[in-house]
Amino acid sequence: MARSVLVTGGNRGIGLAIARELAAAGDAVAVTYRSGEPPEGLFGVRCDVTSTADVEAAFDKVEAEHGPVEVLVSNAGITKDTLLAMMKEETFTDVIDANLTGAYRVAKRAIRPMMRLKRGRIILISSVVGLSGQAGQANYAASKAGLVGFARSLAREYGSRNITVNVVSPGFVATDMTAELDQEAIVANIPLGRQAAPEEIARVVRFLSSDDASYITGAVIPVDGGLGMGH
Ligand code: NDP
């Protein structure tokens, strides 16, 4: 039977690429979308990960359609960049709420059914800046670094239940999130000399979700063209 997979923020960008990659591999893939329409050919559930009620309702719908979620990809995320001196408290907490507490909400909802299944894969999408830091992104970098400690704690808590928890740390990926950044300046610091395509992140997520990655847990996998080397 096809595995039940849920990708948050799967209506565009990296999340959509992950959803398509896993669907092509034969999984029963559901995506959450917060605004707009669900992507064609994928089961979509409307969900804002800052709402516990939305998360609960989304999982209920996915479980009814595909069965308990066996692979959870927590991908939904936002940026609200500004220097600390200018950063309002809500600019900090909004980003933490979506990126870090959002991951908590979905993982929390997923974990008991995974324990009952006696298997599960949780993959959290962090960022290279979680470990390197980035001027103007203290809120975002803190949220992404937080995912590492969160994932590693879950890896310890649920390893004996055959549930792996890993982090993927993309570098600079061509999506809406990066469309307005100074491409030339960023690419100059990337050893591979280019941005990633979302599919290059998606293939690593597919690997982590596969049987080939059965002995990997608590890992932080950089997919950044070398941008974060040394961190
Ligand atoms: P996009 O801005 O293209 O897409 C973000 C996705 O997250 C959208 O589907 C969006 O939904 C969803 N989302 C945002 N906030 C919420 C929320 N509160 N509830 C539910 N869904 C939400 O970003 P990317 O595809 O580039 O990024 C995906 C992930 O990868 C993020 O976690 C990001 O931090 C991370 N990342 C991206 C990098 C890059 O260079 N692009 C580099 C490193 C990490 P909606 O369409 O409704 O807005």
Automatic annotation (TrEMBL):
Q: Keyword check for Hydrolase, yes or no.
A: no
Keyword Oxidoreductase carried by entry:
yes
CDD domains given in the database record: BKR_SDR_c
Q: Into which family does the record put it?
A: Belongs to the short-chain dehydrogenases/reductases (SDR) family.
Which InterPro entries does the entry link to? KR_dom, NAD(P)-bd_dom_sf, Sc_DH/Rdtase_CS, SDR_fam
**What EC number(s) does the entry state?**
1.1.1.100
Classification via PROSITE patterns: ADH_SHORT
Matching entries from NCBIfam families are given as: PRK12826.1-2
Q: Which domain of life is it from?
A: Bacteria
Identify the residues that the record assigns to the Ketoreductase domain, covering every copy: 3-176
Name under which the protein is recorded: 3-oxoacyl-[acyl-carrier protein] reductase
- According to the UniProt record, what class of enzyme is this? oxidoreductase
Q: From what organism does this protein derive?
A: Nonomuraea rubra
A single Gene Ontology MF term assigned here is:
3-oxoacyl-[acyl-carrier-protein] reductase (NADPH) activity
One Pfam family, please name it.
adh_short_C2
Question: What keywords would UniProt list here?
Answer: Oxidoreductase
